[in-house]
Amino acid sequence: MGSALCLLIAASASHAQETPARPALRRVVLLPPPVPDAAMQKWIALAHITAAQESRKGGLLGLFSPKKPAPRATTTDTTPKKGTAATTPASLPEATPEQLRALCETLLYEDLTTRLRTKRHLLLPTETEVRTALTALHLTPGSLQKPEAARRLGRELDCDAVLIPEVTHLERFEGAKRTVTLRGSLHCVLLDPSDRPGAGSPGRHRQRDQPALPPVFPFMGTAAAGPTVFEKGYSRTAVELATEAAEQAAAIASHTFWTGEVAPFALAEERVALLPLPAPSTADALLFTTSGRRVAPAAVRDLPTDLAAQFRPEISPLSGKEVVPIESSRALLQQEGITVGALWRQDQPEIVRVQALGEQLHVTYVIMAQITSVELQTGTPDAGEAFATREARAEAVGALVRVSDGAILWQDHTSATMTLHPTGDKKTLSIDRQAVEQAEHFALTALQGRFRAYRNHFEN
Predict the structure, then answer these.
(1) 3-class SS at 411?
(2) What's the CA angle centered on 180, arms 70 and 169, to 5 degrees?
(3) Domain boundary among 198, 224, 259
(4) Which of 230, 259, 288 corresponds to the end of one domain?
(5) In a domain, 73, yes or no
(6) Are residues 284 and 255 part of one domain?
(7) Which CATH number characterizes residue 281's domain?
(8) Quick one: how far is CA 271 from the chain centroid?
(9) Whether 207 and 295 share a structural domain
């Protein structure tokens, strides 16, 4: 085999989520976490150092300068005092589950505060102002679960809404990889315009007809690290992973609060099924010769008809029992006498059948993909060459289906072209099959990238 050139082309993604109308907001309360004790302040200081180091890292080979991060809203002054040693991972004991949870709650509050101010351009009372108002009103953070108590706090601080972040699940797993995952909800209590000072002005009365926000916005964040190369342990500490997970959770919470779009896999009880990936067993060849152009049907035969092993979409934080593997989906299809191709109508999922399969597998989502077409083009060999250049093209389509209502949350098409310039004495059919299979591989690789871009959308 000689040199090869691959060209990837990805089409625009489509994803359907109903975005509820959102009332105009100018100022909101974000409930801070409990005041950290002296021990927790050391963990927070380490997390701040970690975040600062990550933000200073450049792009690929230093060619792309990272954007200057917005000033972080910190809950306490964690600057090392003069004459004291800097906080490092080695200077602290291993974080307990309780400390890791408290750390995530603090970092989530800090990152969410920064995002609401800088990306959503909202006004937020300071942490001190919120705590002072709670004391003056004889309220506790727990009492704000009652909407009327939250509205009292909102009226005191002249705000349009009260936001209460709650971390409901924190999971730390150490196996082949170390992972830290947090899930939670951002509770929203919206104040009526008449509740706020200045309600008598005409502008405030015009807000009465604005829609209400949903009361709860789910979010999640996850981060993972592999093992170190030459020694026992992992390449990143649990605190570093917690810092990254909290930052992702804040980004998703901000996006969901602002747009109403709920990120997939955000809820703890959600499950996903991966399906077999059908592909054509043959490929037609378009032959360009000195006498003209002709089509050779099924010129490339015995191609693999299930390429599921080459499509690995990013589904974290789901893992283990939360993921129904391809083997289980394949076994159920065989049991029901359904071919995987029957789950598609050309390039569109057969929603009713996909829903029925998802219900039998007891999953929340189904991720499916297929190779829709493959073709090969070849011409006359150049002088001195044993074979002509081969150009194979493959097209793929993928979809994420929500089982409960059959909504297609994400769908995308990709294509890839693989050009081979064969040399040596390889057999023609071997070269043809290699070109087609590599085109299929790169089309599915591009589809994985498009799914990753779809998920990254929820962090904007």
Answers:
(1) strand
(2) 95
(3) 259
(4) 259
(5) yes
(6) no
(7) 3.40.50.10610
(8) 15
(9) no
Task: Identify whether residues 127 and 155 lie together within a single domain.
Answer: yes
Residues 282 and 423 in one domain: yes
- Flag whether 354 is in a domain: yes
Structure token digits, residue 170? 């924190």
Residue 214 CA to chain centroid, in angstroms? 22
Peptide bond into 317 cis (omega under 30): yes
Handedness of CA 108, 111, 115, 116 (dihedral sign): positive
Position 236: which residue type?
Answer: R
The pTM of the whole model exceeds 0.70: yes
275 neighbors 366 (Cβ within 8 angstroms): yes
Residues 246, 276 within the same domain? no
Q: Which residues contact 448 (CB under 8 A, 6 or more apart)?
A: 311, 312, 313, 314
Establish if 20 belongs to a structural domain: no
Residue 365's nearest CA partner among 328, 412, 322, 394 is 322
Residue 393 lies in a domain: yes
Torsion of Cα atoms, 250 then 252 then 253 then 257, to 10°: 140
36-42: long-range pairs with CB below 8 Å, 24+? 36/75, 36/76, 36/102, 36/106, 39/99, 40/99, 40/102, 40/103, 40/106, 41/76, 41/78, 42/87, 42/92
Residues 101 and 233 in one domain: yes
CA 49 to chain centroid: 25
Task: Compute the distance between CA of residue 311 and CA of residue 278 in angstroms, rounded to an integer.
Answer: 11
In order of 38, 109, 224, 283, the CA distances from 286 in angstroms are 73, 60, 46, 10
Domain that holds residue 419: 4-15+270-459
In tens digits, what is the pLDDT along the chain, a chain of 460 residues?
Answer: 444 444 444 454 555 555 555 668 999 999 999 988 887 888 788 888 877 776 655 433 333 333 444 555 665 555 555 555 555 555 566 778 888 999 999 999 999 999 999 999 999 999 999 999 999 999 999 999 899 999 999 999 999 999 999 999 999 999 899 999 999 999 999 998 766 655 544 444 444 444 556 689 999 999 999 998 888 889 988 888 999 999 999 999 999 999 989 999 999 889 999 999 999 999 999 988 777 788 999 999 999 999 999 999 999 999 989 999 999 999 999 999 999 999 999 999 999 999 999 999 999 999 999 999 999 998 766 555 556 788 999 999 999 999 999 999 999 999 999 988 766 555 666 888 999 999 999 999 999 999 999 999 999 9
Considering the domain architecture, whether residues 182 and 319 belong to the same structural domain is answered as no
- Give the separation between CA 25 and CA 191, rounded to whole angstroms: 10
CA distance 262 to 266: 8
Number of domains in the chain: 2
231 and 316 belong to one structural domain: no
**Structural tokens at position 337:** 């006498």
